[in-house]
Amino acid sequence: xxxxxxxxxxxxxxxxxxxxxxxxxxxxxxxxxxxxxxxxxxxxxxxxxxxxxxxxxxxxxxxxxxxxxxxxxxxxxxxxxxxxxxxxxxxxxxxxxxxxxxxxxxxxxxxxxxxxxxxxxxxxxxxxxxxxxxxxxxxxxxxxxxxxxxxxxxxxxxxxxxxxxxxxxxxxxxxxxxxxxxxxxxxxxxxxxxxxxxxxxxxxxxxxxxxxxxxxxxxxxxxxxxxxxxxxxxxxxxxxxxxxxxxxxxxxxxxxxxxxxxxxxxxxxxxxxxxxxxxxxxxxxxxxxxxxxxxxxxxxxxxxxxxxxxxxxxxxxxxxxxx
Length: 323
Description:
By secondary structure, the protein is an alpha/beta fold. The chain has two domains: about 5-150, no CATH class; about 155-320, Leucine Aminopeptidase, subunit E, domain 1 (3-Layer(aba) Sandwich), CATH 3.40.220.10. The protein has eleven helices and 13 strands. It has helices at about 5-20, 25-40, 50-55, 100, 115-120, 145-150, 185-195, 195-205, 240-260, 280-295, 310-320, and strands at about 40-50, 80, 80-85, 90-95, 110-115, 125-130, 140, 155-160, 170-175, 215-220, 225-230, 265, 305-310. The strands form three sheets. The protein has a six-stranded mixed sheet with strand order 8-13-12-9-11-10. It has a four-stranded mixed sheet with strand order 3-4-6-7. Helix 1 (about 5-20) runs antiparallel to helix 2, helix 9 (about 240-260) packs across helix 10 and helix 10 (about 280-295) packs across helix 11 (about 310-320). The longest helix has 20 residues, at about 240-260. The chain is elongated. The mean pLDDT is about 90.
């Protein structure tokens, strides 16, 4: 099965939610579910193989991959259950990908529309809801949550995460690059190392990048992202142009992400390393730039992550947001 792009988006949002820690807000996950409901997300559902199908297959060890079987009667499909309590209530497990399914016990499975599953959940009185990816980073969806999500209006969300952009599962990670785009120190060097030599090969074709601008490449060996957006921050001088150029890094990166169909993006602290931009000022400029971009794109739903590698970076943002 080719992984459904909306199921992948949900899988990534769940990972980031766990990565964000105990106080992480669930809005990015809600956005991914709502996006999936609106776009016929296909999810994997484990099933009990019916007796009639077992008889048609015969000896399963002799069955060949890709072989088809026919039966002369309609066969009802029963979803697998995971016990919720000792009174017979249960969850139905769902999986965003074959990889998530294979983390646990093997099972026959079918593809099913998440929207159809949401609409059908009240047909089973003893079913208390669904668990997405129960063998890994699980998401419990009880019936009251399902009803809420069925009416949920997705909206862009900003998250602050303690960690590196390299660890984020998003459509695009942002690289705080130098003007050559050929790698350097800090996050730039770490991204090039993680992505592998093919990234450098593509970057050579871009012929550099001016301060405040942004360019996009593939993510290569960084498998949990689709793109890397490279932007060049200003070297801090204390002049008014610094803030304008730093803000442009964020807005131009978001513009490129939108142009390339991204629904999620992770930013590092641009210019706050060897370029010397004071953390408190950089946090204010970057957050204001992103908020203004979102205000200018009211019909866009973008999950935006500010990745804070140092505690001082997180503290700067928390001060601004009164956390």
